[in-house]
Design goal:
By secondary structure, this protein is an alpha/beta fold. It has two domains: about 220 residues, Vaccinia Virus protein VP39 (Rossmann fold, 3-Layer(aba) Sandwich); about 55 residues, rRNA adenine dimethylase, C-terminal domain (Helicase, Ruva Protein, domain 3). Helix content is about 35%, strand content about 20%. It is elongated and about 65 Å long.
């Protein structure tokens, strides 16, 4: 009970008063972060610098937006729910008029947002920093879309379902290791920072969440030149986890090509490292 009262008393309790009520919409996967200690921990982990070009995906009612604004010259946000935008602006600017000029709202679907066009409007050479509490129902499509813009991005910090974060940072040989692990680890350094319990949200989700840090890397960029073909290879390899590469990839590459990559046709996808998959891709090019 004390824990519930603490959350109710935090600074964001005003977000849910009758005068500013916004009911979470299931179709947008909305769960609003309301725990100040968690919010501050996330923002401290992001370490925003004054001149950063930062984009927040799905700001909602502004739980992270407001503290980010206090550390930045400007913050761009992408919000799909047009009904929530006036409340977001009010929450972030009501007690700090300076924030009104610092907050740039893009009413858009992140899966259609052109990050390349946006980045071209920034100072030459500037890389983007992406943050957000990603809806569980579109987290994987958003991550894959952002991989396509990785050369424009400095880093990404996301709140995701803990199960998804566990899969992303998984290593070969364990159950969670799969397509998502390989794709993200091929192009990014991945790090699970800390967990976030359900009671930190309103409404409380039925799952635990976690904070993920992604930092794009160039280790395999010269080898993996066709993202779609690489993704297809990984997808086929993990399509039937208990079957061997010889079987799962029979329509994608030959036994000779598997051997050429330094692998055994009798191996399973879950046994291969990211470097192994890159060599397999190279052998089939």
């Amino acid at each position: 009970m004390e824990r519930i009262l603490e959350i109710v008393r935090n600074d964001f309790s005003a977000l849910f008063t009758a005068s500013n009520m916004h009911y979470a919409k299931k179709r947008f996967g909305q769960n609003f972060l309301v725990d100040n200690s968690v919010i501050n921990h996330i923002v401290d982990s992001i370490q925003p610098q004054t001149g950063d070009v930062m984009i927040e995906i799905g700001p909602g009612l502004g739980a992270m937006t407001k503290p980010l604004l206090s550390r930045l010259n400007q913050l761009h946000v992408i919000e799909l729910d047009r009904d929530i935008i006036p409340k977001l602006i009010k929450n972030c600017t009501f007690s700090d008029i300076e924030n009104k000029n610092k907050l740039i709202v893009n009413q858009a679907d992140v899966l259609k947002f052109d990050f390349a066009e946006f980045q071209s409007q920034q100072k030459a050479g500037t890389k983007l920093r992406i943050v957000g509490n990603l809806p569980y129902n579109i987290s994987t499509p958003v991550l894959f879309r952002l991989l396509g813009y990785r050369h424009l991005i400095q880093d990404m910090h996301f709140m995701l379902q803990k199960e998804v974060v566990d899969r992303i940072v998984a290593v070969p040989g364990i159950k969670n290791y799969g397509r998502l692990s390989v794709m993200l680890q091929t192009f990014c350094h991945t790090q699970a920072l800390f967990e976030v319990p359900p009671y930190a949200f309103e409404p409380a989700p039925k799952v635990d969440s976690a904070i993920l840090r992604l930092q794009p890397k160039t280790e395999f960029e010269d080898t993996v030149t066709d993202f779609s073909r690489y993704e297809l290879l990984i997808r086929h390899a993990f399509s039937q986890r208990r079957k061997t590469l010889k079987n799962t990839l029979k329509n994608h590459c030959s036994v000779e090509q598997i051997n050429q990559a330094g692998l055994s046709p009798s191996q399973r996808a879950e046994e291969l490292t990211v470097a192994d998959f890159v060599m397999l891709y190279k052998a089939t090019s």
